[in-house]
Amino acid sequence: MSSEEIALQAEHTLDKYGHLALALADKGWSVTEDFLPATLIKQLADEAREAYGSNQFHRAGVGRGKSFSVKRGIRSDLIKWLNPAQCTTAQLQYLDALEGLRQIINRTLYLGLFEFEAHLAIYPPGTYYREHLDQIKNDGRRLVTCVLYLNTSWSSSDGGQLRLFTNPSDKQQYEEIMPIGGRMVCFLSSRMLHAVMPAHDERLSITGWFKSYTPIS
Ligand code: OGA
Ligand code: MN
Question: Is the CB of 129 within 6 Å of ligand 1?
């Protein structure tokens, strides 16, 4: 790539992150297509499948520390936390992009996003995640949720939509977002009630949270 092309691409990326941050400020959630290049999405998906095949995923739970438990009635997906010290090149590229996004959101929303944590998630056919908020009880550190979808082909008959409740006092008001590869959904973790509808095909994603500095209360 020429230096002009690199500069253009950087500008385009800034613009994309800027739009995302403005939508987040405006309504509490945002959807961005092609957040990362298709080749990188495919690489992340291939690696996720490989890690799943070698039993590196575990049943996701609810809560933290002593209150952690696996409750299949609430969620039945499997996850693998990303540890930056053991990440693949593709996963590091994802983390770099999210660091760029963190800085733009901080400049736009003054949220004081400080840390980031993320896990790969796999929803085998028949699995789901019931309605919930992402802030853990007695721990308000999670401020912004970012879900990046990795399935390059997904159709409405595959289910697995993210149901985002847009009005906390009316459960009939929601948006359903298909988990299409490259699509990134961000929302305010404390505010947006959401659920993952049952998936009928293997559904892959990376879910990450920007967190505040405030220690656990
Ligand atoms: C979560 C979650 C949504 C999705 O992992 O907490 O709600 O669409 N994920 O995968
Ligand atoms: Mn969630």
Answer: yes
* Number of structural domains found in the chain: 1
Flag whether 133 is in a domain.
yes
Point out the ligand 1 atom lying closest to the alpha carbon of residue 129.
7
CATH of the domain at 63: 2.60.120.620
Interval 22-74: pLDDT, tens: 999 999 999 999 999 999 999 999 999 999 999 999 998 766 677 667 777 78
Q: Please enumerate, as own/partner, the contacts of 105-112 that have beta carbons within 8 Å and a separation of 24 or more.
A: 105/17, 105/20, 105/21, 105/24, 105/144, 105/210, 107/21, 108/18, 108/21, 108/22, 108/24, 108/25, 109/21, 109/24, 109/25, 111/143, 111/144, 111/210, 111/212, 112/212, 112/213
CA 9 – ligand 2 centroid, Å: 31
User: Domain of 200?
Assistant: 3-212
Q: pTM of the entire structure?
A: 0.93
